[in-house]
Design a protein that fits this description.
Number of strands: 10
Structural class: alpha+beta
Largest sheet: 7 strands, antiparallel
Oligomer: single chain
Strand content: 5-15%
Length: 364
């Protein structure tokens, strides 16, 4: 027999009771009269101060409880009630499912709405020096993705630098630019945060004139000036971190790898592409060169991609081509074709420089 305090869960009355514990039930008596029996299999422990063993009955009234304070009595209850710490499995499962679903929905809403908004607001606030450090970290991952070497034929590098400098000066750009050609069979170009721009050899091979290459390069410079790569990285890093939380990477350690892949794989928005086209067109016009050669290059790439699909071919290692990450539309092409200078300027490279640029990946 033991003393305890009983609350029946119906009223707020505090009732002094005695307990009779058997192998099958915990019987509750008040003033010598039986008032309730709890099967030992249904007796559960609830949170309480250390000096109290607080009990409730599974399936009983939510507010019903027993408070037992005597150490010997608590030991006896633990001996007979073997499922003290077992909770209703269905309740636990329902709670887990509910909160997991709520967390997943919250993450999805953040990915779809909050992160893009924050990326748009945060990007202008990030110092250029910090952007360059981010770009360097991403650059290492991007080069690992492509596994291609940097083309370094000296005369070709000099020609590329000369072309970059002419485009930079034409618009008075003070952002540091580092342009290189990466040996790859995929016709693409990519601008990383901080001013690093990669031309892929296959894109250079597709080009038939300096103006075609200059137009694409000016387009990528437009992305650098608008900090589009950084904006994508801020958005994708937040997305990667949230999905890391969702799938167990609580430190977000894979975010930079996923973000780098996102930069390579994902397409810019139509607005970003239109703005980069406009930047490229104005740059070419300011040099007295037409913008439409870039459109000609894009059309040839599009035709080649269609031929590859018809033949069942594909890109190496799943790397996207230029039009996959820079979606082209008829509206974009027409806008480029309309941009014609009033006066023709000097060629952006000499014939010798153009030849050297085309052979930048050749080794002696």
């Amino acid at each position: 027999m033991t003393d305890a305090v009983f609350y029946d869960g119906v009223s707020a009355q505090r009732r002094a009771v005695t307990l009779n514990i058997t192998a099958s039930s915990l019987d509750i008596h008040e003033g010598g009269e039986w008032i309730a029996s709890w099967p030992v299999a249904e007796v559960r422990r609830k949170d309480a101060p250390d000096s109290i063993l607080r009990l409730t009955r599974e399936g009983g009234p939510d507010l019903a409880r027993l408070d037992v304070t005597d150490p010997a009595d608590r030991a006896s209850i633990r001996l007979h009630c073997h499922r003290l710490d077992n909770r209703d499995q269905r309740e636990r499962t329902a709670r887990i499912v509910f909160w997991s679903a709520a967390a997943s929905i919250s993450i999805i809403l953040c990915v779809l709405f909050l992160i893009p908004l924050l990326a748009e607001k945060l990007t202008p606030l990030i110092p250029v020096e910090y952007e360059q450090r981010i770009g360097k970290a991403v650059d290492n991952q991007v080069r690992a993705i492509f596994r291609g070497k940097i083309c370094e034929a000296p005369e070709g590098v000099a020609a590329l630098q000369a072309l970059t400098e002419r485009l930079r000066k034409a618009r008075g750009i003070d952002v540091p630019l580092e342009v290189a050609v990466l040996e790859s069979k995929v016709p693409n170009a990519i601008a990383l945060p901080g001013g690093r721009i990669y031309f892929f050899k296959a894109l250079l091979d597709e080009a038939e004139s300096v103006d075609e290459v200059a137009g694409v390069l000016a387009h990528e410079i437009g992305h650098v000036v608008s900090r589009d790569g950084l904006r994508k990285l801020v958005q994708s890093s937040g997305t990667s971190y949230l999905f890391g939380l969702l799938f167990g990477d609580v430190t977000g350690g894979g975010a930079i790898v996923l973000a780098s892949r996102y930069l390579v794989d994902s397409a810019y928005s139509r607005e970003a592409e239109a703005a980069a086209d406009d930047f490229a067109g104005k740059t070419m016009i300011s040099l007295g060169r037409p913008a439409h050669p870039m459109a000609l290059l894009l059309k040839r790439i599009e035709a080649d991609e269609d031929d590859d699909e018809d033949e069942g071919g594909g890109n190496e290692r799943g790397i996207p081509a230029f039009l996959s990450t820079h979606p082209i539309t008829d509206q974009r092409l027409k806008a480029l074709e309309k941009q014609v200078p009033s006066q023709t300027g000097e060629p952006l490279l000499t014939q010798g420089e153009w030849r050297a640029l085309k052979e930048i990946c050749k080794t002696s």
